[in-house]
Each structure stands twice: as C-alpha cells, then as structure tokens.
C-alpha cells in the first residue's frame, strides 16, 4: 500500500497495543496513564447532563464556535488568572483534549527536519503527535530538577538552527518520570527562549494533582514575551472520556490554532462543554480535586513503600510530589523489555522506559502508573514485579 511521506514514522503506540492485555483476567496494570474509575463523578454528571438538556438542549446539541463555549472559556480564564497566567477569553481555545493541542501546534509550526527539543524521556503521545510532521528530536537529559536547561543551551549552540524549532516540556509531575522542573530552571528556559528566539510548548496536564510540597509557578505565568503556548486538560481531574482540554496563547498564535482546529474538527463537543461549565459553576471541581488528591496520595504512598520493600538492591526510583507515575531505573545489565513477557505471565503490566525516548535508549528503565489500581493490588503487583526483577538480577 502507498502512503504519504508524513505517515512513515506513524506507528501504533506500544501503549495502545499494551492496553489490549489489560483485559486478561487477573491482570494488575501499572501500564496506561489512566485515572481511577472510582474518581469519576458519575451521578453528578448524570444530574448535570439532565440539567443541560433541560435548560440548554438545542444549544448543547448544536455546533459551537471553534474557540469553544464562551462561558467555559470565562471559567478557564478565572482559573488561569488565579494560577498567575495573564489571559483573556480571546487567548483561550477549548480543545478535544490537550492531545489535540500537541497535534495542532506541530501542524502549524513544524516543517520537516525542524528541531523539537524535549525532555528525555518524554510523553509518548507527544512523540506520536509530532512524528506526523517529521521533525528531528533533540532529547535533553533530566535530573531531579527536570530538564537540564544548561544542556539545552549547549545543544542549541551545537546545531544550525531551523526556522521553527520549539521546546516541548511537561514541567510538573512529568509523564513519564513524575519529576518537577525547579523554578530556577523554568526561568532559565524562558531566558534561553528569549535569547534563541524559540517558543515553548508547556504541557501542564498534571499540576492540579499535587499531594505534597509547595506549588510551583507555570512557565506560562512567568512568560513576559509571548514565548509560551500553554495547554491544560480536564482528563486527569474530571474525566478523560470528556476529551476536554484547552490552549492558552497570544492572540496571533491562537488565531492560527483556531484555523487549524477548524480543519481538524470544527469545534469541541458542545454538550460536554456545557456539562463541564455547570460542574465548575457549582464549585464541584474543587471538591473533586480534594477527593482525588487524597485517593491518589494513598495509592502513591503504597506504591513507593512497596517498591522500597520488594525491589532488590541496585534499583532506583523517583519520589514524586504529585501526578500519576513513578519512574524506576534498574541495574544497567537488565533490559526491561526482556522482563516484560515474564511480567505478563505473572499478570503484571508496566511500560518499558525506552518507548518514551526518541532515541530508543533507557533499556533498564520502566514507568509505573499508580492511579488506576486499588491499594491492595498495588502491593501485590509490586511484590510480583520485585520477584521478577530479583530473579534477573541474580
Ligand atoms: C503529558 C500529557 N499530555 C497530554 C496528555 C493527553 O491528555 P488529554 O488529551 O486526555 O487531555 C496526556 C495523557 O496522558 C499526558 O500525560
């Protein structure tokens, strides 16, 4: 079969493939980045769905503007201003998840062979979205303070810049490592963007899920020179099935994103936007956040304690202050791909770390999600995984 060149790098995500194993009876999955099904406010959504249909039925079932439902955009502005982001309704577009923002940004700004600088490892879904636009990736190493911005600076000096290069970052409770970029690094990143005339795509999917430590400011909230395109999502706090996210940027970029979105889907699901608006208007999002943060903190603590207890000497792991993932580095002689079959046989799923790196390195790393399992199963699953690793180490 013949396909367009841009499809050459389009491969089925290993994560999606892996999700098929989820249905194996007795499987304990630390694989997909899914919220807990117990977190979804089903009965409230049922009540609000009825309310929306009763009070706004025809409008909620109609196309809405490409930018999104105005009242929801007003609520997004209120939240964002509270978080220090200067914006007006005109700076906001409601999107079909934040995944759509990654796709549209790449579509608008990347020509083939332009560079995307990103954390290594990074969010796999971003690589999948960007791949269609045929960029070159420059992975920037991370430490416990996030992307090592000095290394970004060095890489920038070592290459012949292309027209539209940008930096993609998940600075808070990063997927896949759970690491948060320090304030100093955030400032440094903005300085680098100014100096090298780059823009930054800030993917802030997880910042609302903080379980300990002090909040950090988003990069967008420190952005004085319109360097940042910012995206956030309702998927991790309300319901991923809503497919609701948003983008905040300067008006010029927003106009272009709007045109690209029009081509992609005309508008985001109107009905769901009305429901989300009612949910926020009734002050329920704060209550929901309080509930899920308590729930996820317990799960994370159980996972970290179980790793400590059951993983053999020589393993290292991150201790995040929020988000949904723990990142584990095993002794370098172990390849997590080779553990995988054994792990599936023992009914435990994880994601091997190399899929999160454009260069395919990181053979001895893995990502563990803790939000989608009950605590008892987290303990059992980690114990099984610990045994499998121990056998290999020996
Ligand atoms: C870092 C990051 N960005 C974006 C997304 C996409 O989220 P959504 O499209 O559901 O808003 C995810 C989902 O896991 C993610 O982890």
Q: How would you describe what is shown here?
A:
The protein has 394 residues and is α/β, with parallel strands linked by helices. The protein has two domains: 5-41 and 286-393, Aspartate Aminotransferase, domain 1 (Alpha-Beta Complex), CATH 3.90.1150.10; 42-284, 3-Layer(aba) Sandwich (Aspartate Aminotransferase, domain 2). It has twelve helices and 14 strands. The strands form three sheets. It has an eight-stranded mixed sheet, sandwiched between helices. A four-stranded antiparallel sheet has the order 10-11-14-13, with helices on one face. Strand 4 and strand 5 form a beta hairpin. It is globular. The mean pLDDT is 95. The structure holds pyridoxal-5'-phosphate (PLP). The site of pyridoxal-5'-phosphate (PLP) has 14 residues, from helix 4.
Question: Could you list some keywords that capture this structure?
Answer:
alpha/beta; Aspartate Aminotransferase, domain 1; 394 residues; globular; 4-stranded antiparallel β-sheet; Aspartate Aminotransferase, domain 2; 14 strands
């Amino acid at each position: 079969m013949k396909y367009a060149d841009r499809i050459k790098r389009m491969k089925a995500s290993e994560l999606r493939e892996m999700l098929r194993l989820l249905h194996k009876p007795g499987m304990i999955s630390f694989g997909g980045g899914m919220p807990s099904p117990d977190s979804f406010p089903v009965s409230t959504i049922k009540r609000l769905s009825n309310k929306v249909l009763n009070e706004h039925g025809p409008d909620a079932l109609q196309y809405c503007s490409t930018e999104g439902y105005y009242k929801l955009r007003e609520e997004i502005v209120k939240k964002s201003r509270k978080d220090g982001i200067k914006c007006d309704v005109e700076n906001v577009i409601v999107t079909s998840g934040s995944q759509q923002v990654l796709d549209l940004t790449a579509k608008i700004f990347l020509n083939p062979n332009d560079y995307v600088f990103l954390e290594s490892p990074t969010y796999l879904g971003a690589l999948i979205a960007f791949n269609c636009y045929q960029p070159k990736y420059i992975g920037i190493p991370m430490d416990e303070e996030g992307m090592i911005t000095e290394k970004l600076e060095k890489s920038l000096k070592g290459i012949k810049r292309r027209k539209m290069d940008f930096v993609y970052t998940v600075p808070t409770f990063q997927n896949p490592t759970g690491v948060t970029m320090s304030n100093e690094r955030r400032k440094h990143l903005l300085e680098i963007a100014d100096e090298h005339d780059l823009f930054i795509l800030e993917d802030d999917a997880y910042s609302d899920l903080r379980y300990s430590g002090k909040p950090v400011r988003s990069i967008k909230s420190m952005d004085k020179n319109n360097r940042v395109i910012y995206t956030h999502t309702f998927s991790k706090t309300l319901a991923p099935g809503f497919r609701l996210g948003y983008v905040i940027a300067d008006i010029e970029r927003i106009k272009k994103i709007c045109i690209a979105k029009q081509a992609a889907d005309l508008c985001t699901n109107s009905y769901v936007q009305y429901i989300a608006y009612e949910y926020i208007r009734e002050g329920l999002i704060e209550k929901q956040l309080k509930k899920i943060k308590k729930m996820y903190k317990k799960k994370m603590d159980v996972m970290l304690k179980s790793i400590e207890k059951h993983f053999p000497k020589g393993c290292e792991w991150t201790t995040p202050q929020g988000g949904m993932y723990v990142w584990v580095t095993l002794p370098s002689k172990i390849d997590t791909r080779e553990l995988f079959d054994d792990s599936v046989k023992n009914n435990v799923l994880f994601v091997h770390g190399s899929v999160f790196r454009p260069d395919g390195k990181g053979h001895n790393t893995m990502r563990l999600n803790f939000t989608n399992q009950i605590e008892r199963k987290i303990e059992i699953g980690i114990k099984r995984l610990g045994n499998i690793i121990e056998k290999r180490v020996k």
